[in-house]
Amino acid sequence: MIRLSAIAAVACSLSLAVLNTPKAQEKAQEKAQEKAQEQTQAEGCPRLISSTQPRVLPAAVSVDELALTFVGHATFLMETPAGLTVATDYNDYVKPSIVPNVVTMNRAHSTHYTNHPDAGIKHVLRGWDVGGGAAVHDVTISDMRIRNVVTNIRDWQGGTDYAGNSIFVFEASQLCIAHLGHLHHELTDEHLKQLGRIDVALVPVDGSYTLSTPQMFKVVQQISPQIVIPMHFFSQSTLRRFLDMAREQYPVEISQTPSVVLSRQMLPIRTKVLVLPGR
To answer: What is the CATH number of the domain that holds 130?
Structure first.
């Protein structure tokens, strides 16, 4: 959807004499659209309103919704209104029951990636560059945009593997979802700028392998999402430790099912923690 302010800014720059002809009006509108699109794409987590044509939708998810299922560990399965399926931190141990169209991976441990993804997966997005350097992803597949924000991880010798992993951001149905992956450090201002507005954060809460619980809460405060969904907690006792601290700051909701249908309409005014059961 084109911003009215952007259209007005361009329209005001045109002379009234030129606007008198239909052809000139059409050309002015096209310029306004281009300017608005450039401005939107420069922002973090853009495309808040879909500009695509109406389409036939699967019965389970409407045009303004996104289905999210916690498979387990750090793997979530998302389904868009167009039927696109995406799995996070796809690996050989914890897998969704279907072969997804798209998978993302991080390489801190083998439970976050695989060297042998299913041949039926059409798009494999790794959070690290196998050739060295930083991975760069910004792709639109069907009705979802997927991009990454590079992070570092600790290596097995206690050093730093620069640009070893990524936070993946998924944009669909007017929502921006960030999977923090195997995050090993707090975020910089540049990270936050690249992330942009985040509605739902999928957060590792193990308290040791990634970040300590207080450090992870600081990251949550940095991002300031509407919904925090814990993952990567290994045991119920680890999850309880995180939730005990969470209740000091945020309301906590315990779901009875591993799936939730997300939409902008259901987002809370203030941050809440939503716990989805998973293995």
So the answer is: 3.60.15.10
- Please report the pLDDT score of residue 94 as a whole number: 94
**Which residues 6+ apart lie within 8 Å of 58 measured at CB?**
79, 81, 83
pLDDT of residue 279: 61
- The C-alpha angle 249, 241, 246, rounded to 5 degrees, equals 10
32: domain range?
4-40
Q: Using alpha carbons only, what angle is made at residue 227 by residues 70 and 1, rounded to the nearest 5 degrees?
A: 105
Asked whether the predicted pLDDT for residue 153 surpasses 70, the reply is yes
| Residue 48: inside a domain | no
* Distances from the Cα of 233 to the Cα of 104, 241, 275, 277, 278, angstroms: 20, 10, 11, 11, 10
Asked if 106 and 225 sit in the same domain, the reply is yes
Can you give the pLDDT at residue 1?
39
Which pair of tokens denotes residue 236?
């119920």
For the whole model, what pTM was predicted?
0.79
Q: Is the pLDDT of residue 141 over 70?
A: yes
What letters, b where the CB count within 10 A reaches 16 and e where it falls short, cover 205-221?
bbbeebbebeebbebbe
Q: Are residue 14 and residue 78 in the same domain, yes or no? A: no
